[in-house]
Specification:
Order of helices and strands: HHEHEHEEHEHHHHHHHH
Largest sheet: 5 strands, mixed
Shape: elongated
Strand content: 5-15%
Radius of gyration: 26 Å
Helix content: 55-70%
Distance between the termini: 41 Å
Number of domains: 2
Number of strands: 5
């Protein structure tokens, strides 16, 4: 029975990849080590509490209260609309959300205070702080020293942790590393040794060879997603709301971008001394500026605008939305559009730069 050449090439390529200890180390073990380090370090155990304030009063009393709160080191103060702050509370990003009602300071007032039922210690600390400042504001208010009283109301939330945020980012990072570095170093070596040039003289179709190499990396990207997600679920007990198949779609499409980048770099570079710095020059800024280890909101405004269009941002944002928020593929359609645009750009550059031999 005659076997399909493409299938045989793919199996052979996969076996060669799995026998490469260096490739396995960087594609699976390094992401697992980083995930373990960040998972063990509990970034959610900070001494400060997150308090959201919805200022519907917009008067000197409410402004004085906000000014005083900003001076407390133990408080991370957030302001916004009621819907946005309650949404953050339900996500676990707030310990308490306080609503300063219109007309605050004109008489006795009941101040709604929605607290995070899943974080009782933080919620109690936040309520105590807000009660203290409400009392101060009450005595400082004009007229007849109106009384402000907090009215606590529990809200159930998911209480997301830093690991919930980290796992999808690590999946995106491992996909990028595999796509770029495993392609760059393999193809540069094959080109330097003249293997690629000799392969063109065989009856084997060039398209079958390239397809087998791409299929191997796509398979490994799927394996990386499953392994890292399993570690997140069973070791760190992350909150997973999404669909694994949706994540696989985003991961595979994202992997295609970085495989194309790897082909472009390996096609242009004449040796490993040139290829390695170029690969790092592309991957390192993407790694630290695409919201992998920390939210892009901590970056300067202009840098947030630039990095939201990076290929790794589209991949990590799409994976994170599916994992954390349970988003559908339609809900992450703009991330998929961004991935599609970058795939077209990367494929065009790879087709332009790739060479089968050193020139």
């Amino acid at each position: 029975m005659k076997r399909n050449p493409l299938f045989m090439l793919t199996v052979s390529s996969l076996k060669a990849y799995l026998r490469n200890r260096g490739a396995i180390f960087f594609s699976l073990l390094v992401p697992l080590m980083i995930l373990a380090i960040f998972g063990v370090i509990n970034f959610n155990s900070a001494v400060s509490v997150d308090i959201g304030v919805v200022d519907q009063a917009q008067n000197p009393v409410s402004q004085t209260l906000l000014t005083n709160l900003r001076q407390v080191k133990a408080v991370k103060l957030h302001t916004g609309s009621l819907d946005s702050e309650l949404s953050q509370l339900k996500q676990g990003s707030r310990a308490l959300v306080v609503v300063l009602p219109a007309g605050l300071g004109q008489g006795p007032a009941s101040i709604p205070a929605y607290f995070n039922q899943g974080r009782p210690q933080d919620a109690q600390a936040a309520i105590a702080i807000m009660s203290q400042f409400a009392d101060r504001a009450s005595f400082a208010a004009a007229n007849v020293q109106p009384t402000f009283a907090l009215k606590p109301q529990p809200v159930q939330s998911r209480n997301l942790t830093s690991v919930d945020y980290l796992v999808p980012g690590m999946i995106a990072l491992s996909i990028m590393q595999t796509g770029i570095f495993s392609v760059v170093f393999v193809f540069v070596q094959l080109k330097q040794r003249g293997v690629l040039r000799r392969l063109m003289a065989t009856p084997m179709r060039v398209s079958d060879f390239l397809t087998s190499q791409v299929a191997t990396r796509l398979f490994m990207s799927a394996v990386q997603l499953i392994v890292l997600l399993a570690v997140g679920l069973f070791v760190f007990h992350i909150h997973f709301e999404g669909n694994v198949l949706y994540m696989l779609v985003v991961a595979v499409l994202g992997a295609c971008i970085f495989i194309a980048m790897g082909l472009a770099i390996s096609g242009w570079a004449k040796n490993e001394e040139t290829a390695a710095p170029l690969a790092n020059l592309i991957s390192l800024p993407l790694m630290f500026l695409s919201g992998i280890f920390f939210p892009r909101s901590v970056l300067p405004g202009w840098l947030q605008t630039v990095t939201q269009y990076s290929p790794l941002s589209y991949v990590s944002d799409g994976l994170r939305s599916i994992s954390v928020d349970g988003a559908s593929l339609w809900a992450v359609r703009w991330d998929l559009v961004g991935i599609g645009v970058w795939l077209a750009i990367s494929a065009a550059i790879a087709a332009r730069l790739f060479r089968w031999e050193v020139t």
